[in-house]
Amino acid sequence: MDEFDAFRGLIAKGRSLIPRFKPYLGWGEFKEIFRHQSDSVRCFEEHFARTFEARHALAFPYGRSALWAFFRAFDLKRTEVILPAYTCVVVAHAIVLSGNVPRFVDVGPLDFNMDLDQVEQAINERTGAVIATHLFGYPLDVDRLNQIVRQAEVKYGKKIWIIQDCAHGFGTRWKGRPVCNEGTLALFGLNISKIITSIFGGMLTTQDRKTAQRLRQWREDHFLLSDGWRSIRRRAYLLVVYPAFQEKIYAVVNWLEEKTALLNYFTKAYHLDSTIHFPPDHLQQMSSVEAQVGMEQLKKFPEIVQRRRELARLYHAHLSDSQGIDLLPLAEGAIWSHFPVRVRKREEILRRLHQNGIQLGQLVDYSIPELPGYRPYAADASFPNAARCSRETINLPIHASLQPGQCQAIAWRFQAAVAKEVSIPIKTLLLVGNDKIGRRLIGRLGSYSDRIVLLDVSSGWKRVFRLLRKKRISLPLLCKMVWAEFRREDHRIPTLERIRNSQEFLQKIKDTGAKRVYLFRAGLIIPGGILTSGAEILNVHCASLHSYGGLGSIQRALEDEVWEQEATLHRVEASIDHGEVLRTVGYRLNPRWSYGQNEDWAYDAGIQLLLDELKAN
Ligand SMILES: Cc1ncc(COP(=O)(O)O)c(C=O)c1O
After folding, report:
1. Which of 225, 310, 424, 496 could make an SS bond with 419 (beta carbons 3.0 to 4.6 A apart)?
2. Is the CB of residue 189 below 6 angstroms from any atom belonging to ligand 1?
3. Helix crossing, 63-73 with 209-222: angle to 10°?
4. Average pLDDT of 492-499?
5. How high does pLDDT run on average in the chain?
6. Per-residue pLDDT tens over the stretch 94-114
7. Buried b / exposed e across 457-480, counting CB within 10 Å, b at 16+?
8. What does R_g of the chain's alpha carbons equal in angstroms?
C-alpha cells in the first residue's frame, strides 16, 4: 500500500526526472517505424563505414554477437584474450561463449582505460587478441598498444589481433586519427544507450578486405535472417522509447523499474548481468527497421558529438575546481559518450540528486573479475583500480538533448551533494536578484563546492508601488527600467533555492555557517539580525556608491552628466547603501546611448567586479 501511495504521490505532484541517458530521436527515426527498405542493412553498413572513415562495416544483431562471430569466423579458440577488468561484462561473455579465455588487466589510475604496462606483462604465447576499450569515449594510447602487440608478435611468432572496442568511442580519436582504424578491427554497440542507436544492433569495421569478406561469409552461413515477429517487436520497442524518456514520464518509468519487476520482465534477456549468456535472438541478423533508424542517426552524428562536447566543457568549467570530485581531463579526441566522475561516497550522492529530479548513472558498477562467473579467470590477481572505479564512478547525464541550463543545474546540485558528503565548509553565499541581469550574472558564475547561489524573489509589484509612493523612483523612470528589462536578452539558469524574505535568508546564513555573503541586485531588506549574524555582508552597486548608490543611480548619474563611473563593492555596515568600498571597476556612461544600454553597460561592470572578487577569494 505504501508503494501505491508513493506512486500516486509521484503522479499527483507531476514530478519529473532527468534520465541518466536519452537517445537523440526525432521525426526522422519515427517515420522509419512505418517504412520498410529491403536493402537498408547494406546501406547502413556503407554509410557507417564512410562516417567513421573505415573501408568496410558489417552489421550484427548486437555488439556482443559481432565480437563472438569474429572469434568463431577466425577460428580463435582456447586463446587468451586480454581485456580491461573495468568494462561492460558482455565483452567477457563473448570471449567465454566463443570458447576463449578472458585475461583481465587492471585499468590505469588516472582514466578508465586499461593500464598498458600491465598489457605488456600479461601478453604471452597463448594470447590470441587484445581488446582495447575506449571507455566512456575516452581515447586509449593506441600507438603504445600497437608497439606492445607488434613486439609480442615478433617474440612469439604469431598473429595477435587488436580489437578496438568503440562501443562508447564512436569517432574517438588518438592524435587526430580515428581509433577504430588502429587495430585489425573495431567493435561498435548500437543499443539505445549508445551515442547513436539502431534500436539494438552492433557493427564491426575493418580496413582489410579479406577480413571483411571472411566475416561476411561467416555471417551469411551462421546467422538467420531477422524474422517478422522480431521486426514488429523492434518497432514496438522504439515506439515505447519515445515517450518513456520524457522527463515527466521517465519519473514513472524509473519508479516501475526500481519498485516493480515489470520492466525487468521485458528486458531481462538483454541485461548486461553477470550470468554468462546471450539474448535468445543473438543469431538473427540486424532487421531492416534497425538499419533504417541507424541511417537517420548517422545523419545527426556530427551534431550529437558537438553537443556532447559542449556539455562536457560546461561540466568541466563547473566542476574542475571542486574538492572531492575527480574528473577526466578534456582530451581532444574524447567523444564523451558518458561524463564520468569519481567521488568517495557515491550512494548518498545518487540518492540526493534523485530527490532533486536528476538520475545519475553507474554504468559499470562492477569489476568483472569480482563477479561470481568470472572469479575462476582472475586466479589470485588483484585489480584495485577497477575495484575503485566500480565503487566510485558516477556518470552525469550528457545526452545531446540536455540543455546547458540543465547541465549547470546538475553540476551545482552534484557539487552541493558532494560538498555535504565530504563536509566542505560553505564559505560564501550569493544572493542574486531574480531578473535578467541577475540571471546574466548566474549564467557566468562557475560553481565551487564551498559556495551557494540563492535567488532573491522577495521583490514584487507591491514593493514597486511602495517605492513609487515614497518617491524613491518616478513613474517615467520605472517605465524606462521596465522597457530596458523587457528588451534585454534572458539567460536560462538552473533551478536554484529561492529566498522570499529576510527571515529565510538569516536562517540560511545560520544553517550554512557562511562567512561571506554577496548581494547582487537583491531587493531584500537587510535587518540588523543579518548584520550581526557573524557573516560579512557585501553589496554590489553599479555606480559610485557615495553619490549614486541604490535604485535609480544610473538615471541620476545620466541627469548629472557624470559620465566617468565605477561599479563598487562595499561592506554593508548600517544600511544597504553605505559602507566601506572594497573594490571598484571603472566604466564610462555614454550620452548617445539609451537608458537601457547605459544600464546594461553599468551592470556588466558590476558583474565583472563580482567575478573578479570571487576569483580572488
Ligand atoms: C564497452 C562495451 N563494449 C561492448 C558492448 C556490447 O554491445 P551490445 O550491448 O550491443 O552487445 C557494450 C554494451 O553495452 C559496451 O558498453
Report:
1. 424
2. yes
3. 100
4. 81
5. 91
6. 999 999 999 999 999 889 999
7. bbbeeeebeebeeeeebeeebbeb
8. 29
Please identify, by atom number, the ligand 1 atom nearest to the C-alpha of residue 194: 14
Ligand 1 centre from 610 Cα, in Å? 47
Q: Is the CB of 133 under 6 A from ligand 1?
A: yes
Q: What angle do CA 526, 529, 533 make, to 5 degrees?
A: 105
**Cα–Cα distances in angstroms (integers) from residue 184 to residues 119, 139, 204, 304, in the given order:** 17, 17, 10, 27
pTM of the shown model: 0.82
| Residue 131 Cβ contacting ligand 1 at under 6 Å | no
Phi–psi pair at 62, nearest 5 degrees: -145, 160
Residue 200 CA: nearest ligand 1 atom is 10
pLDDT digits (tens, 9 = 90+) for 528-541: 778 888 889 999 99
The average pLDDT across 567-586 equals 86
139 Cα: distance to centroid of ligand 1 (angstroms): 16
Between the CA of residue 286 and those of 27, 40, 186, 301, what are the distances in Å?
22, 10, 18, 20
Q: First and final CA of the chain: distance in angstroms? A: 52
pLDDT of residue 1: 46
Q: What are phi and psi of 538, to 5 degrees?
A: -125, 140
Residue whose CA is closest, atom 6 of ligand 1?
A: 63
Q: Band of the pLDDT at 205, cuts 50, 70, 90?
A: very high
Residue 381 CA to residue 368 CA, distance in Å, equals 12
Pocket test for ligand 1, best of 163, 267, 272 (most atoms within 8 A of CB): 272
Residue 191 CB less than 6 A away from ligand 1: yes
**pLDDT surpassing 70 at residue 4:** no
Residue 269 pLDDT level (bands cut at 50, 70, 90): low
- Please indicate whether residue 181, judged by its CB atom, sits closer than 6 Å to ligand 1: no
> Looking at 148-152, 228-232, 432-436, 530-534, which range is the least confident one?
530-534
pLDDT above 80 (res 77): yes
Q: 181 by DSSP, 3-state: which? A: helix
Mean pLDDT of 496-512: 88
Query: Could you tell me the domains of the chain?
Result: 18-291 (3.40.640.10), 300-396 (3.90.1150.10), 425-616 (3.40.50.170)
Q: How far is the centre of ligand 1, averaged over its atoms, from the C-alpha of 350 (Å)?
A: 24
Comparing CA positions, the residue from 104, 184, 87 lying closest to residue 138 is 87
